């Protein structure tokens, strides 16, 4: 099937198998390997991206379902060579260790802060329920998101 | 302290990970690369009657299909540790085949490998492979595996034992002490089976270059050199110098990526057969079914106390599952990484542990974060708290009564345990004192009493754990005597470039620990140069001379020490060059802030100038070789022994049994700290995994050997809302026997935390007469305990 998707501001058209997930499409066709596949069943959240501004697990969306949509992946979070305030906050607060869940965490953090610019610790933890991190115990991820929210507010 | 050591320097690794620019194995796409999918057994135990690959071979995009009949790696993947039976009989070591030949021994064992142009085509074709199985009864429980009528995992032996083993004092002596004790506390529990669950699934790509007759294996391993050695010398019989193993970014390991796996050998073999690169990446179901698991001990133990609460002795009998085959380190886990920690932090005079390690129809069990030490700590810290509860002694007080007194390993000797090892240095009571202070222990007890009486439906409990662990693995001669088939030193090369920039090559491997930052901190300080002048390289056997990888919290203690050794050689040679250039005697020079100075003068030469001279040796000491590049092997003289206190506070819902972890206080002592931000991060992550074991996680096999917890819908990993913010502090008792004074921080969190949480829940329910609950403490189990 033919699809047209705008990813990180760039338009792409491909003829793909209908069964290909959006995560696979991003990784295999577009070489955007920052979107990771940790479980392929919506369990871990490593593949979280934004579709039309909403956080979505891209392993459970068919690429054909995203036809005509605007997708943002981790590679599109920063403008130019710098980093987005969320990315900066993760670095500042050691919100990552092995880095594998990190792109999904950053995209989910963007959703949390978009929905609630001033989230409490409990609200952040609630918002992160769909994303597994096995390294950090979430402590520094929560701190990173709190800090990012403050930075974005100011 | 230098400019960088001890400071919370932000990580260099982070930018690439945060921008999605990390390079994990599955991110690589090589020219002409094929994809591999496995046909895996749905049965735990079965005869393979026939395998028909004809339809799969016809399928679209299929390049090749392999079965055991194709003769790949007939020696199988080896075990790296030999623990013989108590009676002297050799450990039973079955062949662990790359593809199952006649018999299946666990669900998920691979029967056929299908190679195709795309992953979808490989998976489609795998479904066309027809395997005729004759299912047989299975046994998955380690104790049942030793019963007389248990189905045999390997029928060349008369029972399922892989080995049995014991350590400590004479059993009769310990039994006599228990018989004469004022009080004996007994426990019977399962230290349940866990799945490590690194979020990056295992992934391997082998690229065989036909013209050069060389391989490059890209692999998600913690241990690239050991993988190369095992793969070449033991499994495939190919020359080691023809294989390059690369493991750059690895998405977590926790032990599960130490081992040499069958799939790793198989992609290597297949890439030569087809003359093309081949990739395999596990999906999460395969990860649950085929990654080595952790724990799975059935424990029966007794601890005897005198009337004051002093421990008189401990005796434990354990059945520890090995799984269907012996994984790389498996035999060491319930023995030398477990029994040697039975002293704990206490002066217990008599100790005996007896282990039976059976094969079971499950995936192999091996080291998972802590490896044997969490199991020892869980037993010790639960049984001492249960003893205190039964005797009406406070849980903190009983620990203070039994602590080994402080010793620094320099002015006071190391502490000789009853279980072979000698602790390096420790001050156990200091961490408990600090932990209690952080918690506000006295006030908590009042609050707890109030909660019991106020009728709001919530019960409060506090649980203490004062742990010790053995890290910095390990002195080669010691582990050799204990059955290890490899040395456990580490290699560190320091190559000073002509411009004074420094490349460091380490055999340790970072898969989240931040070595690229931390190692640069202490190297820059040791040389007195900017951190930006230091680059850390790891994870490539063609760059790094050799190495034994990262596990057992060994990277800094062993790998860091090897680098320091090389730096000493650099400075020694540099001093000769500096003396020549300064026309001074070496004895008159001192090195500081990146330069050699003639003592008491302002005559000096910088590290950069000496480096340039070493590579442009026109005006140079006679007889000295040019160049400034040294490599060292460091073999530690002892293990290191981090310790600490973990305290959990829980709230239990009386109506539902749900446990809410309200606070977690940790005061750890990991020796000197290079980067406190990273140490805290390691502690946080370890605690989350330990809390996971206490409250949430369990791999469950049913009676037929089917795993019924093989997905994220069924296996409960801790989520963000299962955990509180973690309150950390530390004491510092340096390791006396390595140059950095470090002890290791990777596993401490997972070792100390589990019993703290369970102790807290039991404490919350203690007024109801509850003295124990089996892990994981699900709401159902807690609710049931309250009803009895």
Automatic annotation (TrEMBL), chain A:
Boundaries of every 2Fe-2S ferredoxin-type domain copy: 1-77
GO molecular function: 2 iron, 2 sulfur cluster binding; metal ion binding; oxidoreductase activity
Keywords from the UniProt entry: 2Fe-2S, Iron, Iron-sulfur, Metal-binding, Oxidoreductase
Source domain of life: Bacteria
Protein name as it appears in the record: 2Fe-2S iron-sulfur cluster binding domain-containing protein
UniProtKB/TrEMBL annotation, chain B:
SMART domains attached to this UniProt entry: Ald_Xan_dh_C
SUPFAM superfamilies, sorted: CO dehydrogenase molybdoprotein N-domain-like (SSF54665), Molybdenum cofactor-binding domain (SSF56003)
UniProt KW Oxidoreductase keyword: yes
Domain Aldehyde oxidase/xanthine dehydrogenase a/b hammerhead: 19-137
Pfam families: Ald_Xan_dh_C, MoCoBD_1, MoCoBD_2
Domain of life: Bacteria
GO MF term list: iron ion binding; oxidoreductase activity
Keyword set, alphabetical order: Molybdenum, Oxidoreductase
Protein name: Molybdopterin-dependent oxidoreductase
Organism annotation: Poritiphilus flavus
